[in-house]
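Board notes, transcribed. Complex of a protein with guanosine-5'-diphosphate.
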Amino acid sequence: NLSDKLDKALHTLRGHGQITEINVAETTKEVRRALLDADVNFRIAKEFTNKVKEKALGQNVLTALQPGQLMVKIVKDELTELMGGETEGINLSGTPSVILMSGLQGSGKTTFSGKLANFLKTKKTKKPLLVACDVYRPAAIDQLHVVGEQIGVEVYSDRDEKNPVKIAQAGIAKAKSEGYNVVIIDTAGRLAVDTEMMNEISEIHKAIQPQETLFVVDSMTGQDAVNTAKAFNDILNFDGVILTKLDGDTRGGAAISIKSVVDKPIKFIGTGEKMEAIDVFHPSRMAERILGMGDVISLVERAQEQFDEEEARKIQKKIAKNKFGFDDFLSQIQQIKKMGNIKDLMGMIPGAGKALKGLDIDDDAFKHIEAIIHSMTPDERSNPSKLNVSRKKRIAKGSGREVQEVNQLLKQFDQMSKMMKMMQGGGGKKMMQMMGN
Ligand code: GDP
Ligand code: MG
């Protein structure tokens, strides 16, 4: 599967000292294969990996990132870019703003119409009206009414009118006279692209001139989704794409292909049948999903951001002079804590999420250690060798811990000091990498 393949691809890079032509070629080959597996169009996958290759070879490996991580970052950034970079909202400027749904039958138009109405309703200033323009099946009108009732949104329909253009216009007129400021028009689709459906949606589009025309597509349809998107875009020049059914194990490769072919932003995703299962589309999250690699990248970035180089250098000097004390230890703990909650951090490691379930990790694993150090005098912190039995007892009492724990901490501290002295040359970065691993 995709994530296994990428894992393998990226594995070949781990441990290598620099990004070279050879390991980049190896990795991009695997990335390309992975994209093809995720239903990304061949040409797009190829273009993509070429771009990644170019970027990777131009990079210097100066940062705390190892080449493998850097490569992951490049792949992810490029994928994000490919899917549209920043998140785009929908245009709600009209009075009322008219939103037209288009797409094949079963893509999720009716469901998404309800989800969007519900989503907008929670913004206190929006009062949406749903309009039922699927005139072919009586059940389609019923379906929209059921949805409307569920979310408490008014639905306009006319069972005697067979012309969807007229229904749409009547719906908009009702909105104007009754103070609805958003009109969502649900339309009929067919199982495949055909002239009749295209003519109909095109006529509705021309007649009502919506502020926003959305193309709804089932993300499980893979390559077919691209052709459908292209056909609809040729006729409607739509404003945005809605990717539905991204729950389950759809990989979302369709997102990349569609975006590349029609160059329109993906605006929302559907993640279930319930009305609440709607999310604003985030290109970076989708990139992660497609890569199937958890949140490693945020972890790496956060580590980089938070680790204070200056502090690291200071500590390094102290180690060299044998002056590393408990105060420095404490400041290191602060550094680690700045990176976030331990459980969150571990959750970002792929595969660890599952392992962590049911495991009870203290949110503040350093609490006791900090308490003990705080009970030491400044002199004791700089000169741990002064800690005799009576001092240890006093510290234990002061921190509310057992003497045993104080002893344990001293032992750990001793080991750590030795270890740090050993890797002195590498300084803070090496230390960070060790913690990362
Ligand atoms: P339409 O023909 O385009 O109006 O599609 P519908 O809204 O009737 O949806 C077709 C089917 O897909 C229905 O059974 C929906 O419950 C289901 N559906 C729609 N959106 C989603 C989604 O995001 N996730 C899942 N799992 N099912 C969905
Ligand atoms: Mg429908």
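The chain has a mean pLDDT of 79. The two ends are 25 Å apart (CA to CA).
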